[in-house]
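Dear colleague,

As promised, here are the two records you asked about, laid out in our usual form so they can be pasted straight into your sheet.

NAME FIELD: protein one
SEQUENCE, THEN STRUCTURE:
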Amino acid sequence: MGIVAQHTHEQFEALLILSGRRVQHLGMIDVEADEGSMLFMPPGLPHGASLLTDNIALLFSFNLAFLHPELPANASRAWDQPSTLEAAPELLPFAAQPHVRFGCGVELTGRLRSMGSDLMKGSASQAIGSLSYARAQLSLVLLEIVRAFERPMVDAVQLNRPSARSEKIDHLQSFIQSHMSERIGIEDAARHLAISPSCLSARIKRVTGKTFGELLNEARLLQAKEMLLYSDCRVSDIAYRCGFDDHAYFSRRFRKSMGLSPLEYRRVHFAPGSAVDGHAAPDPDEREAAVRH
């Protein structure tokens, strides 16, 4: 057993579990995964894992410029927008991951494993056309998932797509990240963003469907979850560092969100082992064959 430390990256990563069990931490979501599960991590998403048994997995890592070089350079920053998903349907699983569990049957897992093996061999080749072959093979791997889970993915993406995007909301989230340990309210955020509190409140509701308080609590709980997993700080210290003055209130909020108390969550998900610089340490608990582009 072991821990893959929480980290982010600039690439897309798709992980096919070939054997073993894990809990994959995807932002605020915990996904239980075992043989045949596929997990999708888009750029910028904090993620890590608690390995419950020895794991063998196949990792596909790529950037959008490799998969679709014909797309404009800024497409990678808007990868989850309708126009990009239409041009690159291979990215649909990444958009649907928070709402769809990708459990592949034996037949599909076998096909993906075989295609992944071919992709690895092609990637290492210096033969003429090897780059084009790798690009096509990677696209086929992802499109196998799209074909197998098309209906639930399309439903999830359409149902959960915000009606509008707002640069102000991105700036708001950055502000929250920088000040979550402080006593802040929507008035402070509005002052920072040079907008009235009422306008900011309406915009948050329109874009996210949530309130400022809900966004703030989500950010604080995510930070607390990471500290429980990847630090040895006391729960009371974690509560304080994440902006909760009342330890008991923090514990109630955490239990409501995660279904476990902070101590229970740490006890269930913590395991010996560590990772360095966001990459799994050389440990037999997790062995990943990686295909990177």
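NAME FIELD: protein two
SEQUENCE, THEN STRUCTURE:
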Amino acid sequence: MAEPEWDEETRSLALALDDVRMCSVCGGPAYLCQDPERQDDWVAEAPVRCHAQTARLQRAKGVTEETNPHVSALSFPVRLVDRGA
């Protein structure tokens, strides 16, 4: 007989996540980020740059509805260039 992937406690925790309302702005649990009592408990850190997303945005910059209908349906895959360490 195969061993179950999750024990009963882990399964219950995973199922409970379905009951947690998520914030549509930050994606975190709404009960934390929307609690007025916690408004001063949040600290924003310095921004970090995702160079993959920068490349994607640069590539998409010149694409318009005139040059490519339904531009919002396009995906711009990125790949890491092998520099031959």
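A couple of things worth noting about protein two: Helices lie at 8-16, 30-33, 51-60. The chain has three helices and no strands.

Best,
R.
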